[in-house]
Every structure is written in structure tokens, then in C-alpha cells.
Amino acid sequence: MKARHFILSSIYFVSIGTSAQQIPSEYRVPILRLMSGPHPVGIANYSQRPPETNVDFAGTALMPKAHGTARVESTRGGLKVQVHLEGLGPASQVDPAYLTYVLWAIPMNQKNPQNLGELVLKGDESTLNSFTNFATFAMIVTAEPYFAVKQPSAMLVLQNVLRGPANDPNVLRADLLPLRMDSKTPLDIYEARNAVRIARSAGAERYAAEPFHKALQLLQQAESIFAHKHGQDIRDVKQKAREATEAAEDARAVATERGQESQPLKPAEAP
Predict the structure, then answer these.
(1) In terms of C-beta density within 10 A (0-12 exposed, 13-18 middle, 19 or more buried), how is residue 42 classed?
(2) Do 240 and 227 contact (CB within 8 A), yes or no?
(3) What is the C-alpha separation between 241 and 244, in angstroms, rounded?
(4) Terminus-to-terminus CA distance in the chain, angstroms?
(5) Whole-number Å distance between alpha carbons of 127 and 86
(6) Positive or negative, the Cα torsion across 19, 25, 29, 33?
(7) How many helices (H) and strands (E) does the chain have?
(8) Which letter does DSSP use for residue 125 in this model?
(9) What are the pLDDT tens digits along the chain (271 aa)?
(10) At what angle do helices 234-262 and 187-201 cross, to 10 degrees?
(11) What contacts 250, CB < 8 A, 6 or more positions away?
(12) How far apart are CA 141 and CA 260, in angstroms?
């Protein structure tokens, strides 16, 4: 009984509130809201668990057939996380604005969630090895417009399942940025294009010109290499595109922060 209580005492629940990138109105499509409030997800304190802990993943209403497992293992300086997921369709199947999946570690206070990496599909499966120095966290998988996002979108497709009350499978859908994809163009280029468009919509040209223009240059280089591609160049295309995505996300984050700082404060309303 003591061991059972010890394990259960390390399990909590957090209500994860996610928010999508701001998309220009001309690119928006209708929003389907499956839940109008925060989403409860189990969170575990792995420092109070065995050195190796197995965790299940269950799909949400957006990807009900998705499932998987994770092994969380204590290692020097933190925890090694090994995830294997199955039953996933392309992210664009969930929503045309989203091109890939990202695994997240969400700490108890929900500040500074950690992007544990992109889940690249092979068929309907994906495997990822990652690391976190969080001790207490929840794990979720979201569909994203590109891999380098710093905050999870509202497109929650999988969540960890811990022993305790059942999790609510409902989620909140996000505004979408439709993209028409073809099978010949690498996904990395589409993610970079998406990242640049979203950064521009966030005011990066004005508030974060340097990283934004760096992203543009990297994207142009990737597009140019791909347009004149040779067999040995495809790795360069993907590398440049991924660098462009990261630069665009940096620009978007800076622009969002500076844009908010530049907004005049509203006068307080009289009581």
C-alpha cells in the first residue's frame, strides 16, 4: 500500500491552455471549437518514480486512433525520454494549416514549455529520443505549422496517460493557415514558408527585421537549391529550410514581445 500511495502521490493534473499563432484574417478558415476552456492533462513527478518509468499516450478527439508509449529514464543532469507513437495521419489531415508534430514537456507552472523535438512520420509511426531537465511535467503532442515553435498550439493530438482519473479527450481547435502541398516539395520547405508567413503576420518585418531577413535569405537559398536540385543537394535544401524555420520563429517571438510592448496602455475604467 505504501508503494502504491508513493506512486500516486506523484501524479497531478494541470489544465493546459494553448494558443495558436496569430494568423491574418485573409488566411483564416472557420474554427471548430470542441472545448471552450483549459484542457486537463496528467502530470507526473519523475523524481519520485522508479529510475525507468513507462508512460502511455492516448489520442484526443482530433486523432482518436493515435496511441503510443514513452520510456522516461533517469540520467545525468535530467531525464531521457524515448517515445514511440502509432496511428498518426499527416498533420495536414487534422488541419491544412499544420504540417508536422511536436512533442512537449509541460512543467507544473506551465511557464516555458520545452519543445522536445519534431515527430517525423514513417507511415503512421514516429519515434523520438529526447532529453529534459524538468522533474515534474506532462507530455503532449501537438500539430504545428513548423518544428521550431516555442509554444504549443491548440491542436492537441496526443497526451500522456497516467494512473488516475480519466483525461478529458476534448480539445480546442485553432485558426488555420491553409497551404496546398505537393509530393515533390520537401516538407521542410513548407514548414519554412509557413514560419516566414506567420512571422510576417506577427510584425517581424517591423519589430524583428534582422532575424526576419535572415529567415527570408535562408528560405530563398533553400528554394534556389531545390529549384536547381541535384541528387546530392537535397540535404542542403532541408538544412537551409530548417535554419530558415528557426530564424523565422525567433523573429516571430521577438516581434510579438516588442509589438505588445509598443501597445499603449488602456486607461483604467472607473469603478
Answers:
(1) buried
(2) no
(3) 5
(4) 55
(5) 9
(6) positive
(7) 6, 10
(8) B
(9) 333 332 333 345 556 655 444 444 443 333 333 333 455 677 888 887 788 888 989 888 788 889 999 999 999 889 999 999 999 999 998 888 899 999 999 988 778 899 999 999 999 999 999 999 999 899 999 999 999 999 999 899 999 986 443 333 332 222 334 566 777 888 999 999 889 888 887 888 888 989 999 999 999 889 888 887 755 578 889 999 999 999 999 999 998 888 766 655 444 444 4
(10) 20
(11) 208, 211, 215
(12) 28
Q: How far is CA 197 from CA 59, 113, 224, 249, in A?
A: 29, 23, 18, 10
Q: For residue 238, how many other CB atoms are within 10 A of its CB? A: 18
* Cell reading at 29: 478558415
Is-contact 72 53, C-beta < 8 A?
yes
Q: Which residues contact 1 (CB under 8 A, 6 or more apart)?
A: none
Gap between the Cα atoms of 253 and 195, Å rounded: 11
Return the CATH fold of 2-161: Immunoglobulin-like (2.60.40)
Cell digits for 145?
505549422
Q: How far, in Å, CA of 8 to CA of 202, rounded?
A: 43
Helices within the chain (DSSP H only): 2-8, 91-94, 187-201, 204-207, 209-227, 234-262
Cell 520545452 belongs to residue: 114
| Residue given cell 509598443 in the structure block | 262
> 10 Å Cβ neighbour count for 70?
20
Q: Could you tell me the three cell numbers for 200?
A: 510576417
Strands (E), the chain: 11-16, 39-45, 52-59, 67-75, 78-86, 100-107, 114-119, 126-132, 136-144, 156-161
Write out the three cell numbers for 155. Answer: 491542436
